[in-house]
Amino acid sequence: MEALTDLHAAQPFWIWLALGVLLLAVEAAFSTEWLLWPAVSAGVVAVVTALGLPLGFLGEVALFAALTVAATLLSRRLIQRVNPSDAPDINSRDSRLIGQRAQVVQAFVDGRGRVFVSGSEWIAEIDGAAPLAGESVIVEGFEGSKLKVRAV
Q1: CB neighbours of residue 23 within 10 Å
Q2: How far from chain centre, in Å, is Cα 88?
Q3: I need a surface site. Which of 35, 46, 50, 84 has the fewest CB within 10 A?
């Protein structure tokens, strides 16, 4: 333990910088989204120690902890403001199709046909009057890989 405290006393900047780089490397490798702000906080503490502010080891650890908590909480608030939870998931292609206009490419028989929407063909189901090929329908929902549509 004495060797560690002696190392910190001699080179606090490099200790904090190494910790920040290590945390950033782990974040980049695993994309946890939890280690970015501790890595930034370690970098800030490294800069503070390079400026020669006499915080001592416990003061540096307290500053690191406070910066990590503050940055994490502020980033979560910012992310929630920018990406509201009720916004459709950009990775969920099916849910983004709801409300879009589709073109019938294969006429509906017994309520089943094919439509073209968002650059590809989909199997579709319709209740009621079936439109002819070339006509438009509106996507109302989906069930697995099958779209539920209605006539325009």
Answers
A1: 22
A2: 12
A3: 84
| Closest to 44 in 3D by CA, of 95, 36, 5 | 36
CB burial of residue 6 (10 Å; 0-12, 13-18, 19+): exposed
Q: CA–CA separation, 41 vs 59, rounded Å?
A: 13
Q: Are 101 and 137 in contact (CB under 8 A)?
A: yes
Q: Which residue has the higher pLDDT, 8 or 19?
A: 19
Helices within the chain (DSSP H only): 2-10, 12-30, 36-50, 56-82, 93-97
pLDDT over threshold 80, residue 86: no
- Please give the model's pTM, rounded to 2 decimal places: 0.56
Task: Give, as one character, the DSSP assignment of residue 135.
Answer: -
Burial of residue 5 (CB within 10 Å: 0-12, 13-18, 19+) is exposed
Residue type for 143, please? E
Rounded Cα gap, residues 128 and 133, in angstroms:
16
Dihedral angle over CA of 12, 37, 59, 2, nearest 10: -40
Q: Which residue in this structure is represented by tokens 């968002």?
A: 118
Q: Quote the CA–CA distance of 54 and 7 in Å, as a whole number.
A: 16
What letter would DSSP give residue 89? P
The encoded tokens of residue 98 equal 């709801």
